[in-house]
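User:
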Amino acid sequence: MKVIKVINNNNVCVLDESGREQIVSGKGIGFGKKCGEEIDNSQIQKTYLITNSELQKKMITMLQEIPIDYMNFANDMVEHIKKEYESELNESLLVALSDHIAFAIERKKKGIEFTNPLLESIKEAYPQELSLGEYCVEQLKERLAIDMTRDEAGFIAMHIINARLDTKMSDVYDITKMINGCIEIAEYYYQQEFKKESVSYERFVSHLKYLAQRLFQNKPLPEKLSDDAVFVSMIKKTCKKHYKCAICIQEYILKTYQKDINEDELITLAIHLKKVMTEVERHGC
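Assistant: Predicted structure:
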């Protein structure tokens, strides 16, 4: 690997054997180095491959400002998180998590702690991401002796959600709130608390995630079911109560977020709601 930019004594930008730009870290790896010189591979402790040029610039800035222990910790957490998903995560997660962890630690040292208003919503809609956030908080305590609250696990979860959806952080906030709002509307409509551990409920929430993501990313919704007039008529008759609940959800989304859902979504939501309520009634909840 050849040096193309020395960031500081412990971090340099290099070109690897394939001509890709990478950032490598290691104690004293950049000391006395000049552009074009070879790097001793035995000195490399961490390698960061970031293809997005803007993200790479942010990463270089952070490496100049953030302690190397924090960067290494964030990188280890990202590697752990990646193993939990089959699909790729946006490479922005490393930059966002490094920045967030460094800022959170500095806040903690000053005695400043933030409350996460979305914590319960995240727990409801994104339990896996919250669990990973909790893992990061546990590791912070174990490895860096920094004791964070569960609220901080929620903030970390939001960064993971953002990387999974490949969207803006503001959209993560709205998506999470919308999912939770739809669940609250449905439970109020039926005057029942849903059976959260049931398969039908998990599928309902998964569909709400898909719906919210498409709405906030302005992607078109499917329009296939509504082409079958006989099927639509059957659903409206056999799932009349659940179709009305779907309309309540539609009205909530339109009023709160100024986004509309189509007939296909009303039908799909009605079917999901029927399955959820069948599960509730079966267990007498």
